[in-house]
Amino acid sequence: MTGKKKNRVMIADDEAHVRRYIGAIMKDMNSEIAGEAKDGKEAVEMFARIKPNLLLLDINMPLKSGKTALQEIMARFPSAFVIMLTSLADRETIEDCISAGASGYIRKDVSIDEFKAAIKASWHAYKNARQPISA
Question: Taking a C-beta distance cutoff of 8 angstroms, is the pair 23, 12 a contact?
Fold first, then answer.
């Protein structure tokens, strides 16, 4: 995710310190944090309102799982660019999320450089496969 115009990123994670950490990484990548959600229900509602260029969505969240939130978002916005975040999810859950439309996943325990590389690789693959939704 590069260029002069800042990408609008939404972060959905139930842990405030994780949202701050990921937000700092994304700002370092010349992105604007357009919104932060603390649970899956809020993520779905906020995504519909702000239509970010990228949603970083935790798999394990209260009120509505990331997987369920992803399914609802993709049903309404099939061209959404969503990367799942995980610390403990099993392979089957990750594969289900990819099948439901996620562009990829990132483990929360990777280094900052690995996190950035995963974002960039997913962004390039996404741009080649789909057109981003407009704000």
Answer: no
Residue 3 has pLDDT above 80, yes or no: no
Q: Where are the domains of the chain?
A: 7-129
Contact yes or no for 54/47 (Cβ under 8 A): no
Angle at 10 (CA atoms; ends 115, 79), nearest 5 degrees: 95
Pick the CATH number of 7-129 from 2.40.30.10, 3.40.50.2300, 3.10.20.30, 3.40.50.300: 3.40.50.2300
pTM, entire model: 0.87
What φ, ψ does residue 109 adopt, rounded to 5°?
-95, 10
Per-residue tokens: 117? 């590389």
Beta bridge partners of 74: none
